[in-house]
Amino acid sequence: MTTPLPRPARYGSLAISLHWLLAAALVGMFGVGLYMTGLPFSPQRLKLYNWHKWAGVTILALSALRLLWRLVRRPPALPAAVAAAMPRWQHVAHHGTHHLMYALFFVVPLVGWAYSSAAGFPIVFLGVLPLPSFMPANPELAAAIKPWHAYAAYALAALVALHMAAVAKHQLIDRDGLLRRMLPGRG
Questions:
Q1: Backbone phi, then psi, for 129, in 5-degree steps?
Q2: What proportions of the chain, in percent to the nearest 5, are helix, strand and coil?
Q3: Which end of the chain has fewer surrounding CB within 10 Å, N or C?
Q4: pTM, 2 dp
Q5: Dist CA 46 CA 39 (whole Å)
Q6: pLDDT in tens, 96-123
Q7: Interatomic CA distance for residues 17 and 160, integer angstroms
């Protein structure tokens, strides 16, 4: 008979809420981004681009809140048994993936905002709040910036997939209960 592992320390309610809200927003945003870029010029495409910008600004604000909360309330350490079972490369991958995801939470929307500014397409949040442009309109600069928004979004999507694969490994193979730390409820 195996001894059950002790329950890992959980994240707080706000950290859990921000995690899942941003996860859903990022997955939805990536899907909408792929879909809208394939549409012909139309009112539907323009509407989706505006929604995409609004969602990007929202993700940027939520990411800032999440980072601030993480700096104020340090996340719980990995349980000792889990940490001891992980080879060094997994520790490096764990920390590296989280740091890169946090960086890209900011890079992707900021590069998109820079592209919109350089392309001369203002961002009017929710159709009522005009946001400042990062730079004056410059078609050459816009053309140079545009692919970097996509590259950064694909990089973030790849890191999210890697993160999900690590969660699946911990849940299905290691069966160490690590996922409970980030699930809503009492876990």
A1: -115, 100
A2: 70, 0, 25
A3: N
A4: 0.89
A5: 10
A6: 999 999 999 999 999 999 999 999 999 9
A7: 17
pLDDT score of 134? 87
Q: Where are the domains of the chain?
A: 13-182
DSSP for residue 130: E
Tally Cβ neighbours within 10 Å of residue 41. Answer: 7
Q: What CATH class is the domain 13-182?
A: mainly alpha
CA dist., res. 22 & res. 51, Å (int): 16
**Within 10 A of 120 (CB to CB), how many other CB atoms are there?**
12
pLDDT, residue 177, reads 85
**Model confidence band, residue 187 (pLDDT cutoffs 50, 70, 90):** low
**Separation between Cα atoms, residue 10 and residue 17, nearest integer Å:** 13
d(CA 12, CA 184): 9
Q: What are phi and psi of 38, to 5 degrees?
A: -90, -5
